[in-house]
Write a structure and sequence with these properties.
The chain has 7 helices and 7 strands. By secondary structure, the chain is α/β, with parallel strands linked by helices. This is 3-oxoacyl-ACP reductase.
Length: about 250
């Protein structure tokens, strides 16, 4: 198994977090699943099974994040993997000039704050053990010209900010044997709520711009995350793994 003996913290118990937790457990990891809503966490634990422990943690609260990471490190003996997949609470499908500042900037603040806090909390323990992997969903879509006409709101700025953080972290932490990797998708159909505004437009954008017509699923993210967190990917850091099904061709 790819992750046997590894201890992983996953922030976010929604569709993606549950899929990642499932893949990690199948590959032998002990998973500590953290999120804001206990009912969601309990549901995720039941669906995943295996070595999963849950804790109510607000990933944007510094004290809660640090206390939880310290508790995991003490209980498990190490933090080998940290992955943040909480919702960015973004609004898409509305032209930028018609958006409120709050709607535009909220995903940037949420993503940067939570990924800063969770990454730093894990890294402080990883530095001591001279190893570890920090993963996040991210990746810019700006290299695909067809995406420029779409009304992304603040999510594009969010992705760019997360990628900038990934580059900085990978350089600063590499000397300690810590890898930092982003998983880049073209969007996840399953993660868009049925009642989300402009849902049909977003779905069409995600699906139509892939080369295969089959965008990544949450389970795909989980499987690739398990690989990226394993020693099989030990040479991969400071970069993104392209899971866009051809939406972004480098």
């Amino acid at each position: 198994m790819l992750l046997e003996g590894k201890n992983a913290i996953i922030y976010g118990a929604g569709t993606v977090g549950t899929a990642v937790a499932s893949s990690f457990v199948k590959e032998g990891a002990r998973v500590f699943l953290a999120g804001r809503t206990m009912a969601t966490l309990e549901d995720a634990r039941e669906r995943v099974g295996g070595q999963v422990e849950v804790a109510q943690v607000d990933a944007t609260d510094e004290q809660q994040v640090n206390a939880h990471a310290d508790a995991v490190a003490t209980k498990a003996g190490s933090i080998d993997i940290s992955m943040n997949v909480i919702s960015d609470t973004d609004v898409q499908g509305t032209p930028m000039i018609e958006m409120t500042l709050d709607d535009y900037i909220r995903p940037v603040i949420t993503a940067v704050s939570s990924k800063f806090l969770t990454s730093c909390a894990a890294a402080r323990h990883m530095i001591k053990q001279k190893s570890g992997v920090i993963l996040a969903l991210g990746g810019s879509v700006e290299r695909n010209p067809s995406m420029h006409d779409y009304n992304f709101g603040g999510i594009q700025v969010t992705f760019d900010a997360v990628e900038s953080m990934r580059r900085q972290l990978s350089v600063e932490l590499g000397r300690y044997g810590i890898r930092v990797v982003s998983l880049r998708t073209s969007g996840l159909v399953e993660s868009i709520p049925a009642d989300y505004a402009n849902r049909d437009m977003i779905l069409s954008s995600i699906i139509d711009q892939t080369l295969t017509g089959l965008p990544a699923t949450p389970q795909d993210v989980g499987n690739v995350a398990a690989f990226a967190a394993s020693d099989w990917a030990r040479t991969i850091t400071g970069t993104e793994i392209n899971m866009t099904c051809g939406t972004a061709i480098d």
